[in-house]
Amino acid sequence: MNNNIFPCLWYDGDAKESADFYCTVFSGKITADTPMVVNIEIFGQKLMLLNGGPHFTKNASVSFMVICETEDEVQKYWDHLTDGGIVLMELGEYPWSKKYGWVRDKFGVTWQVYLSENNDLEQKIIPTLMFIHQKNGKAMKAMEFYTNIFPDSKIGSILKYGDGIGNETHEIPENIQHAHFEINGYSFFCMDNSYDHQFDFNEGISMVVMTDNQEQTDHYWNNLITNGGRESMCGWLKDQFGFSWQIVPKRLIELMNDSDQEKAHKVVISMMKMRKIIIQDLENAYNS
Prior knowledge:
Layout: E1 5-11, H1 15-25, E2 29-33, E3 37-42, E4 45-51, E5 62-68, H2 71-81, E6 86-94, E7 97-104, E8 110-115, E9 125-131, H3 139-149, E10 154-160, E11 176-183, E12 186-192, E13 205-211, H4 214-224, E14 230-231, E15 236-238, E16 244-249, H5 250-256, H6 261-272, H7 279-287
Helix pairs in contact: 6-7
Organism: Chryseobacterium taihuense
Protein name: Glyoxalase superfamily enzyme, possibly 3-demethylubiquinone-9 3-methyltransferase
Domain PhnB-like: 4-113, 123-248
């Protein structure tokens, strides 16, 4: 499992409460606990929970597919996640799964709980990107874009609406109903959807990419913002599809966690002024 890539969920003060909840639901553990950032590990996968304030809310444009091996497992997660949540698709039998349901939990995170017949993926929780509004029909383009930028990447199975599994909708036959791709060994699913949802990609759910050096940082940053992406602050950016990424050098985390509080604070102040993270400038601030 590649834990250099992982999701970041945005909260307004309740990250710790949410972390405790997910660790209970999925038998996970908290690996870092600070007022701003809580990291958890579930099924060997890292998730970052960020207390960023009221600016962004999570929505179903990015949901998390939970791959289950038994009906009991599906039921167990479903019972927890629906507690205080909102059911988006009832738990039941569908053309693609004997037991499946879609729910928005009480913290605003959306989960698809799925009984898999023949799962050859070792990753248990898989972020699922929904391409909607003016991005509907661009899931294939996005998969090609991402897999060209990251090493150890591939496009896996693709099911188009025209392939006829449970498509009683008005979707374009060429568009993607469900597809799998990997970047740097980390699995994603994606889909096109023509429904006029009242949400879209935002900073509420982003992907963090941890980098080893400036060369890697530059590569991901410079490529992800091509063709209409946008730089944001503190290592954040939006790609051409409006999806948010954080490109974070591992050295930044080391310096910010330094035992010398004053030096660590200087690093944070320096980082807050940056768009793309420049490691040498962080080192300079640390040594100033």
